[in-house]
Amino acid sequence: MADEIHVQRVNHVGIPITDRKKSLAFWRDVLGVQVIPSMVDSKNIVWTAIGDGSMVHLIEPRDGKPAGYHTAFEVTNFDATLERFRALSLEIEGPGERHDGQRYLFIRDPDGNRIEFVTSSRIKPSRRVVDEWGYTRDP
After folding, report:
1. pLDDT value of position 122
2. pLDDT at 139
3. What's domain 7-124's superfamily in CATH?
4. Does position 1 have pLDDT exceeding 50, yes or no?
5. % the chain with pLDDT above 70
6. Among candidates 131, 12, 130, which has minimal Cα distance to 70?
7. Distances in Å between the alpha carbon of 101 and those of 96, 97, 104, 122, 138?
């Protein structure tokens, strides 16, 4: 069927945190994740990677609003996925594009869970750098 969505893998999970230093020390020093440059301009998100290339995004509250959990699925047919969601009259946040060219959109499932759909990562090179506490900047 032409309008099927083709989920390839979990790209990342977003996990709410309340204390960046404590959380990052746990995830980096205990669980061994690698802090990597963020490809978005939100300073409240620490991007980390695990061995298979999947990511864990540690998300601090923004503007006093607590962050929620979400999962991002990588799809091979992003435009068809977007059109399928539109045809179903789902409320869509986005689409947007990150610094590395990765496209994304968000929807909510029937239970209100936020789900992200993305294209493959690292479509174009980025020279962004990250410090030890996960703050990213352009050189």
Report:
1. 66
2. 81
3. 2,3-Dihydroxybiphenyl 1,2-Dioxygenase, domain 1 (3.10.180.10)
4. no
5. 95
6. 12
7. 9, 6, 10, 7, 15
Confirm if 126 and 36 have CB atoms less than 8 A apart.
Answer: no
Tokens representing residue 68 in the block? 């929620």
β pairing state of 70-75 and 7-16: antiparallel
Burial degree of 64 (CB within 10 A; 0-12, 13-18, 19+): exposed
- The label of the residue with tokens 């230093």 reads 21
- E-only strand ranges, the chain: 7-16, 34-35, 45-49, 55-59, 70-75, 93-97, 103-108, 114-118, 129-130, 136-137
Q: Which of 24-33, 37-46, 99-108, 120-129 has the lowest mean pLDDT?
A: 120-129
CA atoms within 13 A on the CB side of 138: 7
Any idea where the domains of the chain sit in the sequence? 7-124
One-letter amino acid for residue 104 of the chain: Y
Per-residue pLDDT tens for 128-137? 888 888 888 8
Q: How far apart are CA 46 and CA 56, in angstroms?
A: 8
Q: Which residue has the tokens 């090179």?
A: 125
